[in-house]
Amino acid sequence: MLQGGLPEGHIVVLMGSFGTGKTTMALQFLMEGLANDEHCIFISLEEDKDSVLKNAASFGWDLGDAISGKKLGLFKLEPSDAKTTITRIKSELPKFVKSFGAKRVVVDSISLLNMMFSDESERRTNLFNLSQLLRSTGATVILTAEVKDENPRSSRDGLAEYTADGVILLDSEENRDSGEVQLTVRVLKMRRTAHSRRVKPYSITGSGIVVHADADMF
Ligand SMILES: Nc1ncnc2c1ncn2[C@@H]1O[C@H](COP(=O)(O)OP(=O)(O)OP(=O)(O)O)[C@@H](O)[C@H]1O
Ligand SMILES: [Mg+2]
Fold first, then answer.
1. Which strand ranges, in their side-by-side order, compose the sheet holding 11-16?
2. Protein residue closest via CA to atom 12 of ligand 1
3. To the nearest whole number, what is the mean pLDDT of the chain?
4. pLDDT band at 142 (very low <50, low <70, confident <90, very high)
5. Residue 79 has pLDDT above 80, yes or no
6. Residues with a beta carbon under 5 angstroms from ion ligand 2
7. Lowest mean pLDDT among 64-68, 75-79, 180-184, 193-197
8. Counting C-beta atoms within 10 Å of the first and last residue's C-beta, which end of the chain has fewer, N or C?
9. How many angstroms does the Cα of residue 109 sit away from the middle of ligand 2?
10. How far, in Å, is the centroid of ligand 1 from the Cα of 19?
11. Which residue has the CA at smallest separation from atom 27 of ligand 1?
12. Of 28-32, 153-157, 177-181, highest mean pLDDT
């Protein structure tokens, strides 16, 4: 669908409703990096470290060795501690990504980070700054985002899709006859890529996300 994966250096928003597999797909993106011997960073604002480790383990991904071998940096930032978190991200993150030599970075989720700001213009400025900072590191970045309840094609803040180089939407369709729910993925935006615009079904399996590229929804 992406003509060979996420373009290097892109900042990509991975958005979807709860439980659609955002965290799983983001972890899988890092697992692929680790398999290629790339250094990776996972910044969690949602689940604590232990929960991320358990999630990964449920797919057979053992992150322990990568963490102790300094190949993977796994960090939990506290949304309740907004001021410190923002200051740390601004002052330490770019330096850290560079010194760690990270080629892949995940922020899970950008929606929680955005919630730290009370007004829209502050939120916009911060997101723009963060995108600039991340872009300057040269790493390929996935920012997960929650969607609006009333419009599942737009992120909760409706901001990240504009600053990002790419947007991937995880969604679901219910078959009215069978009542079965099928998870679907589509690429809404990927700068400099002749990406597919098809809606493809995917499954979350015991070994991660599998996109059924040969099947079509429509
Ligand atoms: N080991 C597993 N095998 C198969 N499916 C799993 C497994 N672990 C989780 N799932 C499925 O994945 C879903 C959760 O995926 P994930 O946590 O990646 O979603 P998310 O979009 O990040 O959710 P949230 O918005 O709550 O953070 C579960 O609800 C379950 O359906
Ligand atoms: Mg999640």
1. 72-76, 39-44, 102-108, 140-145, 11-16, 166-174, 181-190, 200-205, 208-211
2. 21
3. 93
4. very high
5. no
6. 22-23
7. 75-79
8. C
9. 7
10. 5
11. 18
12. 28-32
User: Would you say residue 174 lies in a domain?
Assistant: no
Q: How many residues does the chain have?
A: 218
Residue owning the nearest CA to atom 23 of ligand 1: 19
- Shortest-distance atom of ligand 1 to CA 27: 18
Domain count, the chain: 1
The domain of 159 spans: 11-167
- Are 47 and 55 a contacting pair, CB within 8 Å? yes
Helix pair 49-58, 22-35: axis angle to 10 deg:
80
Domain with residue 50: its CATH number is 3.40.50.300
What is the 206 CA–ligand 1 centroid distance (Å)? 10
Residue whose CB lies within 8 A of the most ligand 1 atoms, among 204, 205, 209, 210, for a mutation test: 204
Q: Token digits for 29?
A: 């993106």
How far is residue 5's CA from residue 122's CA, in Å, rounded to a whole number? Answer: 33
Any domain includes 107: yes
Which of 23, 51, 171 has the most ligand 1 atoms within 8 A of CB, as the residue to mutate?
A: 23
Distance CA 187, CA 125 (A): 26
**216 domain residue, yes or no:** no
Is the pLDDT at 77 greater than 70? The verdict is: yes
pLDDT-wise least confident of 72-76, 99-103, 176-180:
176-180
Q: What number is the average pLDDT over the span 191-208?
A: 96
Q: Give the ligand 1 atom nearest the CA of 47.
A: 27
pTM here is 0.95
